[in-house]
Amino acid sequence: MIKGITKRWMLNTLSVIITIIILLVVILIFAVSYLFQSQIEGELHSASNELSVVFSGFQAENASEFTTASRDYIENFDNKEQFGVMVLNSSGRVVLTSTGFLPSEDEKMTDFEEAKANGNGYAFWNGRLLSGELAMSETRIITDENHNVVGALRYIVSMDPARTRTLFYSATIIAVGIGVIAMVILSGLSFIRSIVKPIRRLSDAAAQIAQGDFSASEKIEHKYNDEIGDLCDAVSDMAKDLQTTEQMKNDFISRVSHELRTPLTAIKGWAETMQLSERGTLDRRTFDRGMGVIIRESTRLTGIVEELLDFGRIQSGRMVLMKEKIDILAEFDETVYMLKERAVEEGVHLLYDDPDIMFPPIYGDRNRLRQVFLNVLDNALKYTPKGGMVAAQVLYNKEENPDVIKIIVTDTGCGISPEDLPRVKEKFFKANQTVGGSGIGLAVADEIMNLHNGKLDIESGEGVGTTVTLTFPVYKEGEENENPETVKL
Ligand code: ADP
């Protein structure tokens, strides 16, 4: 069954080409047969025209004089091979022929009557003789000086050779037409096959990829350097990306499960220990330590779950912000303050000088922005080893750049390799597998910055350290009316 592109090509293109070729063939056949017919007609007519010359000075006294004169003419007529000549008397009966045989009385040829009637003295006849032969004739009326008809001369020629020639040429034209159609079909089919085959292979591979068999992308051949080749490349790139994402997603699930299990184990362990303390076997100090662990680990759990929820919201486009005019410096101050103790615990110097200038407000969601600050500072501490340094600054230059506020967090940690740097904002991506973390923190932070029309830029040198720059546009008068949908809860 012919279907798809082949069927469409057959309906749209091939049918038009075949119709045009058939039309051309028909026109050519008609032209050839018309050409042969008119060629013979021309020859007949020029032979018959000779008569006007031969009989121009002829003054017949009577019919028998004409018969004698025409007998002389027939005898001397040197084109007998090509034409037959008949002498007709004044009533149209054949009285003499160049072959010597008189035609049957029943042979009905209308050219004599027509030539007599039409005034110019000659007429053609075209038809089948009683013998079955196709023939063409021209009759020329001979008159005396008083314009009385004394007789006529008829030239007759067989059309059978012309018909044979016409048939031969027609057959040749039809054969050439069929040949051209066959060539068009063959070349068209091979061209279509060169499109359909790789596309079919590609769609099979895509179906396999869709079912999770990423190895199918290796079967995609890049055979042609054209749109199909580009499509093959695009599908195999897509498969590779999907495979990487799938791998990252799986890693993410196992990482997150692990991250959830660690605090749960600690909480469960301490809860069980404290249950025993009810029976008075636990001293106050151990009890306080246990409670501290339970609270800290629960907070960590809540943080992980919140991050996952935010990630889900971003993925489904449901993240809504509660924007208001806020003092970004105050929010950042508080976040840094929160992490001071942890920096001391981890042996990392956290440098931060609260600038004592007035900052213009920005229009944003304070909780979400704190989340961004926390993520950036948390990463800086997390990826900086003991003895390292994390420096934070909030910058505003009213003269040079009055429209933006920048927060810059620099660390002297492990840094990020140039290959990984462009990908760290991707979801699930973790450049450093040795340190804990879900790999979605920066993806969420970047999205929150975008929703604030801000930017999160990362520069890093492997083994040198990392600098994260957050850029915020300052509040513009009437901004709350510009995109109200992000304001509502
Ligand atoms: P994670 O939960 O793994 O920290 P993030 O999305 O916050 O996930 O960060 C993505 C990756 O970017 C991290 O796994 C880490 O490899 C790299 N990264 C982020 N911040 C820093 C930094 N300050 N120093 C070194 N690497 C960093």
Give a brief rundown of this model:
This protein is an alpha+beta fold. Helix content is 52%, strand content 17%. It folds into 3 domains: 49-158, PAS domain (Beta-Lactamase, 2-Layer Sandwich), CATH 3.30.450; 227-315, Orthogonal Bundle (Helix Hairpins), CATH 1.10.287.130; 319-488, Heat Shock Protein 90 (2-Layer Sandwich).
How would you describe what is shown here?
The chain has 489 residues and is α+β, with helices and mostly antiparallel strands. It folds into three domains: 49-158, Beta-Lactamase, CATH 3.30.450.20; 227-315, Signal transduction histidine kinase, dimerisation/phosphotransfer (DHp) domain (Helix Hairpins), CATH 1.10.287; 319-488, 2-Layer Sandwich (Heat Shock Protein 90), CATH 3.30.565. 52% of the residues lie in helices and 17% in strands. The protein has nine helices and twelve strands. The protein has a five-stranded antiparallel beta sheet, sandwiched between helices. Strands 7-9-10-12-11 form a five-stranded mixed beta sheet. Strand 4 and strand 5 (149-158) form a beta hairpin. Helix 4 packs parallel to helix 5. The model has no long low-confidence stretch (mean pLDDT 87).
